[in-house]
Specification:
globular; alpha+beta; three-stranded antiparallel β-sheet; binds zinc ion; 1 helix
Length: 84
């Protein structure tokens, strides 16, 4: 099962999919790998962010969730170990 990313990073802050414009206009990047994200707001699937370059990054959801809880909007760059 693939996790859908509900949060993107915009201007250094996590924003929810419901708070941004559809598509590339969301101007968000992946919290884990910093690649541009597209806001997918279709009719059929749950709204989520997808990587613009089509790549999947397994850590993105985890990273996003860790980032907002418990320390809201506090980013620590030390636990972004990129193994890709
Ligand atoms: Zn990513």
């Amino acid at each position: 099962m693939k996790f859908k990313l509900p949060y993107g990073l915009k201007d250094g802050k996590l924003v929810h999919i419901s708070d941004v414009e559809k598509g590339l206009k969301c101007e968000c990047v992946c919290p884990a790998c910093n690649h541009p994200l597209i806001a997918r707001k279709g009719e059929k699937t749950a709204h989520h962010f997808a990587h613009y370059n089509g790549s999947e990054c397994a850590k993105s959801v985890e990273t996003a969730l860790h980032s907002i809880s418990p320390s809201k909007y506090l980013f620590k760059a030390n636990n972004l170990n990129s193994t890709e």
